[in-house]
Predict the 3D structure of the following.
Amino acid sequence: MLDRFTEKTDDSSKGSMLFNEALDAEKNDNIAEAERLYRLAADEGETDALVNLGLLLIDKTEDRKGEGVSFFLKAAEQGNISGIRNMGYVNAVGIGVPVSKEEGVRWYTMAAEKGHVKAMGNLAILYRSGKGTPKDLVKAAEWFRRSAEAGYFRSQASLAQFYLEGKGVEKDVSQAFYWYTKAAENNSNRGMYNLALMYIDGIGTEIDKEKAKELLRAAVAKRYPKAMFVLGDMLLSEGKNEEAWELFKTAAEMGEKRSIDAFVSAGKTVPEYKGWK
């Protein structure tokens, strides 16, 4: 996801006042007025307005995506860290510009070195996959660590996985448990799910299936299909068939393979795929 500024500033400068008015206009779906006000705020030196203006244009027609990128570039050139990170994202993904993982790495590195926690995670992912840069799991682990220590839940879950599998770091299940716990505490679906698996199997901790179910239910509430299957499987073993199959059904509709296989194995009609969202 691209960075967007949503909070008003308490600065009394003209640029900040225009920026705040633009936020109100955007919140009220008055997009044309928001664009006008963001442009005025940008003219007054408000670089956050450049970032939000870029987002408005990127969300419009294809011919304006390039213009949106140009505003990210202006923000980046003026030192706005979100403008820098957004330049990494649009290049890595190919929004308004041709896909260039190499450019993505370059911009993400700039933002990461300035302390942008999401950019650190983005950069780690590219090092992990070897896209835009030579594959380097040690560097990936280090950037995940820096991002995780700064509190970013996605990087906390990724760092936990590295420790669990011994990728880029020495295998350490206690560290995996620690970072999955941090991610779960930060409301990460993946953190809750994987921490639950550790409680189920007693990896890095004592077996605690009730705690596992508590975590899985929290992930299910956020519509995480993998958690639906595992919780359903646990409930099925307890004879709670109706609740279990309802979970399997919802997960299967979201494309979760194990839940689909459960319907096939039981000779039941596979629910129609409805997509992840």
User: Anything to note?
Assistant: The domain at 12-114 is CATH 1.25.40.10 (Serine Threonine Protein Phosphatase 5, Tetratricopeptide repeat). The chain has a mean pLDDT of 96. Residues 117 and 152 are 6 Å apart (CA to CA).
